[in-house]
């Protein structure tokens, strides 16, 4: 599916000229609702580092080159190093206990569509109820978005 041509962009897309927006804008009502939801997740209560680590792990699992490309930049701004970002694809012993939990949540949700009791207990120890809900919705959202991007063949910008 081709993105809308620039002459048809709304003000948001003009300010954020990414193919994901220009493509989803073909369904204006759904696009506006998705922007509010996605914005709530990106500006939510989770620490930015945790959010971006979870998104990158989800992009890796979903084989979403588009999400990976865009969130690598955001992950660097959130404090992840280039080495850590690369390690999302090849986890090793460098992760802190807190980072391991973020990765485990993304892994559990990807492979089982649920959290193990142990992962849930660790999440409860670390986050309050609001952040737990947000975390699960964040991973589910980016998994869904990866499917949409892949199916609509949204291309990474040059």
From TrEMBL:
Residues 28-92 form the Carboxymuconolactone decarboxylase-like domain. Pfam families: CMD (PF02627). Gene3D superfamilies: AhpD-like. Coiled coil: none annotated. PANTHER family: 4-CARBOXYMUCONOLACTONE DECARBOXYLASE FAMILY PROTEIN (AFU_ORTHOLOGUE AFUA_6G11590), CARBOXYMUCONOLACTONE DECARBOXYLASE-LIKE DOMAIN-CONTAINING PROTEIN. This is Carboxymuconolactone decarboxylase family protein.
């Amino acid at each position: 599916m081709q993105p809308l041509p620039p002459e048809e962009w709304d003000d948001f897309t003009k300010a954020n000229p990414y193919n994901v927006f220009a493509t989803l804008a073909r369904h204006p009502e759904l696009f506006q609702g998705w922007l509010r939801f996605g914005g709530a997740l990106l500006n939510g209560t989770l620490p930015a580092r945790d959010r971006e680590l979870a998104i990158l792990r989800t992009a890796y699992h979903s084989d979403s080159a588009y999400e990976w490309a865009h969130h690598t930049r955001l992950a660097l701004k959130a404090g992840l190093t280039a080495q850590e970002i690369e390690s999302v694809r090849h986890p090793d012993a460098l992760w802190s206990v807190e980072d391991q939990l973020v990765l485990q949540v993304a892994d559990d949700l990807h492979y089982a569509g649920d959290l193990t009791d142990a992962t849930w207990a660790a999440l409860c120890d670390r986050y309050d109820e609001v952040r737990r809900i947000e975390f699960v919705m964040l991973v589910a959202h980016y998994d869904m978005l990866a499917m949409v991007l892949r199916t609509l063949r949204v291309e990474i910008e040059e």
